Amino acid sequence: MKKLFETCYPLDQRCYEQYGLTEDILMENASLGMAKYIKKHFSSSHSVLIVAGFGNNGADGIVLARHLFGFCDVKLYLPFSVKSPMAKLQLERVQKMAVPMVEDLEEADILVDCLFGAGLSRPLDELTQALVSKMNKHEAFKLSCDIPSGIDTLGNPSPLAFKADVTITMGALKESLYTDMSKDFVGEVRCVDLGLSRAMYEMPTQTYLLETFDMLLPFRKRKNTHKGSFGHLAVIAGEKEGASLLSAMASLRFGVGLCTLVGESTSTLPYALMKDRKLPHNTTAIALGMGLGAKWEKLEEVVDASSPIILDADILHHDSITTFLEQKERTIVLTPHPKEFVTLYARVFREEITIQMLQSNRLAYARAFTKAYPHITLLLKGANSIIAQNAVCYINPHGTSKLSKGGSGDVLAGLIGALLAQGYKSLEATLHASLALSAGAKAFKGNDYAMLPTDLIDEVGRLEPLD
Question: Tell me: the pLDDT tens digits for 256-274?
């Protein structure tokens, strides 16, 4: 996993004060990183148009023009007068080299956005909005410097943003690159060093980006085992039994030794599943909420049990949810989607928030919730799901629109429940299950609109370890 930062300004400041590096040195390396990317992926026959703003992000673009001048046909467009001292210095240098300047957007093979970087704290004015809209319509490969212009400090379009194919960010990864709201704008994210290794540049953080190879699958390394060696998950069946069936089958695919569907089951179950009207005595974890409906007669039995529990869907709206939240000695995982989280947040904090408020600052709300309930692991679903525990957040950026279909969350609950039943700690179970869900979706070869939850379960069963 990689570190994420709300802002890199403190990291830059440490470079100046502790390492004796200057702003000019950092800028030179930032622009050199962009130049190396362009030279690696494009030939000298490709033309480049750099649109540079008035501040230091614009200065990065001006330096990039200097690095590319002589390699390819590069032109510099400055729609605003430069203002920052570094921008003025860099402009003076390229003028001495006679780097071509243009007065408007021109055709080019590569369009580089250097208008505004990370730290945008105000909405774009109408003039800039018009410029960004025009850039988005430009027929070119689109590259952004640091972060697409128009994405604010919280990762939201303000009110629109440049839509990049690739974003080359500087020094370290920013949280704003991995929000749900910025996902359609950032494209592929690359990070370049600023004259020192990332290990030397970065500082401690409470936010991490999950990588695909962070996933650990529950392979069975012991040979002398039996079905009881891998836990017993009790999946509570409710009014919509199909949801609990999906969770149960997903759990069996993810290594749990036994799975029982608990409730008044009316369906003919798959042969691999057991059913019972009460919790089995050897239950090692419980999955509750998927298709539960308005009420379930034996909920008290589940509340009184001490087994680790994954709470999803309908139970998050139920009055008993506060009772579960207060069970501080119990291993608990919550997996709400945004609407469920908004309802839950209002219930426990007595504060009404909207889905828009949540989506515009997901990390802050996830931190607030898990700071109040440090014993609980939260998975806030989304385009980039957030897993949080005790105010430390992990972002899974590998989600795909293939998962935007009823039943995907039920599969996730089953995967988490399977790992809890096998003895995984709540954070480990949630991280690995989330990554497995994403990897399973990615592995599906059909059209992105065609994947069924049952396809997803099958793909999870075929996953291979990643080095």
Answer: 999 999 988 767 788 889 9
